[in-house]
Every structure is written in C-alpha cells, then in structure tokens.
Specification:
Blueprint (H helix, E strand, L loop, with lengths): L11 E5 L2 E6 L10 H13 L8 E6 L10 H8 L4 H20 L4 E5 L2 E3 L1 H8 L2 E4 L4 E3 L14 H9 L1 H10 L2 E3 H7 L4 E2 L5 H13 L3 H13 L5 H15 L3 H11 L10
Helix pairs in contact: 1-3, 5-6, 9-10
C-alpha cells in the first residue's frame, strides 16, 4: 500500500510530513461505522506495520462529531437476524480493528469532538493519546442496547486508563462521560477548543514524527506487551528493548547533538 497516494473507500486519508490523518466521513449520521468500514479500517491499520514513512496517526471525525458507533440500520438491524457463527465473525472482526490500532508501531492520537459513543468510544480508547473538545460526550453504551460492556477489549483496556471502579460505572450504566470527567479521570490527555482541536492534535503528531520514531514504536510495543508481565519480566524486556534502541543511529545523533550543544535531528533509524 502506498500511503502517500492511498485513497480509501470508507474514510478520508491525508498524509504530510510523516503524519497521517484518518477522518471518519459520514457527517450526516455522525460518522457511524458499517461492516465495510470496520474491515477497511482494520486492514488499513494492519498495513501501517509496513509503513515506516508514516510516523504518527491522527484519528478524527468530520462534521463536528467523532463517531456514533455501529450504524443502526446497516449493522445493528442485520445483527439481530444472524446466527451465532456469523455474529462471532462480526465481533472478532471488530476486535481485530482494536488489535490493529494497538499493534501498529505509530502512536495514534484520537482528536474527538461531539458524539463519541459505542464503537467510537472504543476507537478513542484504543488510541495511544486522546484530545477532546469540552462538548465531547463519550459513552460505552452497549448496556443500553441490551449487550455486555465487554466489547472490543473495553473490559481490558478501559480499567487500565481510568481505573476499575470508574470503568465499571461506565460499562454497567452505559452513561455518558463528560469531557471534564474524562480529563479528570485520565481518559483525555487534554481538552482543546473546537477551533484549536486539529491544530493541537497536529502539534502532538508533528512532535512525535520529529522524534526517534523507531524508539517510539518500541515504547508502544512495550506498553502493550507489559500488561501480561510480572515486574521482573518487564524489567528484563525493557533492558533488551533499550539495548536494541542503543544500536540505532538516532541514539548516536542525540549524543553528538548533546556534545555540540545542538538540538538532535532524528531520522527514525
């Protein structure tokens, strides 16, 4: 896949100076997902593993909203008519999208405005960094439609971000989390005005893209991998990971820049 010229069918993609922007683009319905857009997003994020030219990703929505979850008529309705094997194929596919977002080496920044519910809340949760506007309304509303809160990794990932008790509250009640709550609880890294949202997200992405991107990818890998490790195993894994990073040219560039009292210019190798 050529990411510089890629033209996806079910979302917008732009790429410049190492930063790619994925924009969910069904604004008339608050950017819901369909069977097709789930699959295309999954395949897109999987392919990013082989795209060293892409150094950071911004994930956002058009028209003043992030994502309203699965399209009621195009997804929810058909699901009520499926048998168990087809339902399991669907739930595995949606989970694979979260796996792909977590597995790509590029840090993913969710830039969220307005509605961010259901699968939209999951996409924000799966991202590495999250920035939102004060009007952002986030809800893991599966309980409100008769489903369990354990959807697309929510019971594993959300407690690690905001704590077990707060995650339990959101998943049992399906209630909306205000932007202020989300920032206070640590779900949002920062709040930004609607006018400044994309600019602030771009600043974060550009800062990441200008950094030691190979090492950033290692950091993301370890943040994921160490969930299942004891402390001794984690320290050993980090020792090995850091030894690898110490062999990179970026590490040597940083040293030479320090000696010369200059700002390092990283190249990602």
């Amino acid at each position: 896949m050529n990411f510089e010229t890629h033209s996806p069918e079910h979302f917008l993609w732009s790429f410049e100076n190492g930063v790619g922007t994925v924009t969910l683009n069904r604004p008339e319905k608050k950017n819901p997902l369909t069977f097709e857009s789930y699959a295309e997003l999954r395949d897109f994020f999987r392919a990013l593993v082989y795209a060293p030219e892409v150094k950071a990703i911004i994930l956002t929505g058009s028209g003043g909203n992030f994502c309203s979850g699965g399209d009621v008529r195009e997804i929810i309705g058909p699901l009520t008519e499926m048998d168990m094997p087809d339902l399991l194929n669907f739930t595995r596919m949606t989970g694979d999208l979260v796996k792909a977002v977590r597995a790509c080496p590029q840090p993913v920044i969710a830039a969220v405005e307005g509605v961010c519910v259901g699968a939209g809340a999951i996409l924000a949760m799966a991202s590495d960094l999250r920035i939102a506007t004060p009007d952002a309304k986030t809800a893991f509303l599966f309980n409100r439609v008769g489903l369990a809160g354990c959807d697309m990794g929510a019971c594993a990932i959300l407690p690690r971000i905001i704590g077990q008790g707060r995650a339990s509250e959101l998943l049992f009640f399906g209630r909306s989390m205000s932007a202020e709550e989300g920032e206070r609880w640590g779900f949002w890294n920062a709040l930004s005005s609607a006018d400044a949202l994309m600019c602030d997200a771009q600043k974060w992405a550009s800062r990441i893209a200008a950094g030691p991107t190979f090492a950033n990818g290692v950091t993301k890998t370890q943040l994921n991998a160490e969930w299942d490790m004891g402390i001794d195993q984690a320290i050993e894994a980090e020792a090995q990971a850091q030894a690898i990073c110490m062999q990179t040219e970026d590490f040597r560039r940083a040293y030479r820049a320090f000696i010369a009292k200059e700002k390092p210019v990283f190249e990602g190798n």
